[in-house]
Amino acid sequence: MRMMLPAVLGLAFVVASVPASGHPADGALNHLYETIAAGVAVNSGEQVTGAFAADAMVLDPRPGPPASGDAFRTGIARMAERLKADGAEVKADYRIVRRMVTGDVAVDVGYRRQSMAVTRPGGPMPGTQYQKFLVVAQHQADGGWKIVRDASLPASKEAWDAAERTEGLKYDL
Q1: Average pLDDT value for residue range 35-46
Q2: SS3 category, 128
Q3: What's the pLDDT at 155?
Q4: How far apart are CA 60 and CA 153, in angstroms?
Q5: Are residues 135 and 150 in contact, defined by beta-carbon separation less than 8 angstroms?
Q6: What is the pLDDT averaged over residues 51-64?
Q7: Half-sphere exposure of 70 (CA within 13 A, CB side)
Q8: How far apart are CA 3 and CA 19, in angstroms?
Q9: For FRET with 118, which of 21, 26, 47, 85 sits at 20 to 30 Å CA-CA?
Q10: What is the DSSP letter of 165?
């Protein structure tokens, strides 16, 4: 019996230290970012917000309170229409560096690179922005996952470049 205690403690340590990558939900969670990126690429506010729960709350560096519900969806739709009208071509890439899944809740830490090119004169300034974020997703009754909380801050190209790949998590080049 005395010999089993170290073995049990050792096994508990190994199990507790296994990273969340390789979780059965990884594919569905990674798909949330692919859905957003596909919506951004075609300036579809509806497709972008489709990755978010109806009561999602989004906190970004812009002034004002967090956006949620219909106000969030309306704001994204308005922005997508304006970008479309300006001839903006936008591309979003994601690098998820850490994921923790506990029951029906997943928390991702990662980076987003958003590049914009403009095809019409007088449109917005082309360029690339980098953000770091913390996203909380929740398993839904229909079996899918939706983002319920999203907080982001500005980041740098250096932070994007230094983001380490974690096996199984979304990581665009």
Answers
A1: 97
A2: strand
A3: 98
A4: 6
A5: yes
A6: 93
A7: 0
A8: 28
A9: 47
A10: P
Looking at residue 21, what is its pLDDT? 52
Label residues 86-125 b or e (16+ Cβ within 10 Å = b).
eebbbebbbbbbebebeeeebebbbbbbbebebeeeebee
Residue 165, number of CB atoms within 10 A of its CB: 13
Query: Which domains does the chain possess?
Result: 23-162 (3.10.450.50)
Output the CA–CA distances (angstroms, integers) from residue 10 to 23, 100, 121, 147, in the order listed. Answer: 22, 22, 64, 36
Say what the pLDDT of residue 157 is. 98
DSSP 87-103: TEEEEEEEEEEEEEEET
Residue pair 52/146 in contact (Cβ under 8 Å)? The answer is yes
The share of the chain scoring above pLDDT 70, in percent, equals 88
Question: In the predicted model, is pLDDT for residue 106 greater than 70?
Answer: yes
Spatial separation of the C-alpha atoms in residues 30 and 22, rounded to whole Å? 12
The tokens describing 147, both together, are 């983002």
Strands 67-68 and 88-102: unpaired
